[in-house]
Design a protein that fits this description.
2 domains; Aspartate Aminotransferase, domain 1; four-stranded antiparallel beta sheet; alpha/beta; 13 helices; Aspartate Aminotransferase, domain 2; binds pyridoxal-5'-phosphate
Length: 371
């Protein structure tokens, strides 16, 4: 049976209908006017709208490569339509029926559904709240063996916002290397660490890692639909063969704007803006959580525009989310989308007033339940 992508469908149905969309996990974007100079806007207005390079504009590839260790160059990168396409292409290229995948959960939930839809055998291991949403590495070691084709990770983590330390990544790389498994690391939240200390990419630790990333979250511009893959040149070539069947290339206009975003000093400015917004918003969010202390448990995120919160109200998470949506016009994500009822995911990357007004309405919904 085809596994549907529950969270994306929930967002597609309602995110543009509600007054307060707190289901997003990225940062509030800039407008073209705020991001681009007059000269850059004029250049875009005069561009001829060709297909462009199917693997990515060389200037964009070079700007992306400069965000990774020196060993990474243009031949290690393929530009995609969002990191969603990057994730899809990794699954489609690597996974055949009955291949074993070790999946670290919870995660964005695209890859688990995709792997099952491709007929792979999915073995799951959960991040532990008691470990600050980190992995039990002994448990991981016991699950990986010579049958494991791929270990799939999201770091920094959606939905928990946890960030792996270098030593954790090194240990995971050693576990994978022992059995020759690939590591897929979805790193779309890398660069929005609240303490400003950038998480290392898995490519630092392991040559058989395949990274998906993009401009939608830490880089705050989801509407551009720019993502990318980083891998060894042979894997990139294999994946490109599949991409000829999907979207051919990303939009030339988006690649032009994306090149500006990934080039210094803009890259650093945007990441700095994301970290600052999230740090300020987390103070607001934490004080809102504190005002509902008896209901919530909360390990604050270290990166990414979201907060994953446990609750002890007597209501199913999906039911709560629809009650909130219908009665207060606020959208958040139920733990059910992660197979984790009893949790709720709040987007905290919006403008402060918007976030604060949305949270007031969540309080009203909680109150109406008698808490
Ligand atoms: C971890 C993760 N990966 C990938 C995506 C897809 O994002 P996009 O295709 O906009 O880059 C998301 C979106 O929420 C995400 O959270």
């Amino acid at each position: 049976m085809f596994v549907e992508f529950e969270m994306e469908r929930l967002q597609s149905l309602y995110e543009n209908e509600v007054k307060y969309n707190l289901s997003d996990s990225g940062n509030h974007p800039l407008s073209m006017n705020d991001l681009l100079s007059e000269e850059e806007i004029s250049r875009i207005l005069n561009m001829e709208i060709y297909y462009g390079y199917t693997t990515g504009d060389p200037r964009l590839l070079s700007a992306i490569a400069s965000w990774y260790p020196e060993k990474i160059n243009e031949g290690n990168i393929l530009v995609t339509n969002g990191s969603a396409e990057a994730n899809f292409l990794i699954g489609w290229t690597l996974l055949e029926p009955d291949d074993e995948v070790v999946m670290v959960l919870p995660n964005y939930m695209q890859v688990p559904g995709l792997a099952k839809n491709l007929g792979a055998k999915v073995k799951t291991i959960h991040l532990k709240e008691s470990l600050g949403w980190h992995l039990d590495l002994d448990e991981l070691a016991s699950m990986v063996n010579e049958k494991t084709k791929l270990i799939s990770i999201c770091n920094p983590s959606n939905p928990t916002g946890a960030v792996m330390a270098d030593e954790e990544m090194q240990s995971i790389a050693e576990i994978a290397e022992k059995h020759g498994a690939y590591i897929h690391s979805d790193e779309v939240y890398r660069g929005s660490e609240l303490d400003g200390k950038e998480t290392k990419s898995f490519v630092h630790f392991y040559d058989k890692s395949i990274i998906s990333c993009g401009l939608s979250k830490s880089f705050a511009h989801p509407g551009l639909r720019i993502g990318w893959l980083v891998a060894s040149p042979d894997i990139i070539q294999n994946i490109w063969t599949r991409k000829d069947y999907t979207t051919l290339c990303a939009s030339v206009i988006s690649q032009e704007i994306g090149t500006k975003i990934m080039t210094e000093p803009t890259r650093n400015d945007i990441l700095g803006r994301s970290s600052k917004m999230l740090t300020e918003n987390l103070v607001l969010f934490q004080s809102w959580i504190d005002s509902h202390k008896e209901i919530f448990t909360f390990v604050p995120p270290k990166a990414g525009g979201m907060a994953f919160v446990g609750y002890n109200m007597d209501i199913n998470s999906t039911e709560f989310v629809h009650k909130l949506r219908v009665e207060q016009s606020v959208l958040i994500v139920p733990g059910d989308c992660y197979g984790m009822d009893g949790y709720l995911r709040f987007g905290i990357g919006a403008n402060q007033d918007y976030l604060s007004e949305g949270l007031e309405l969540v309080s009203a919904c909680i109150k109406s339940l008698g808490y």
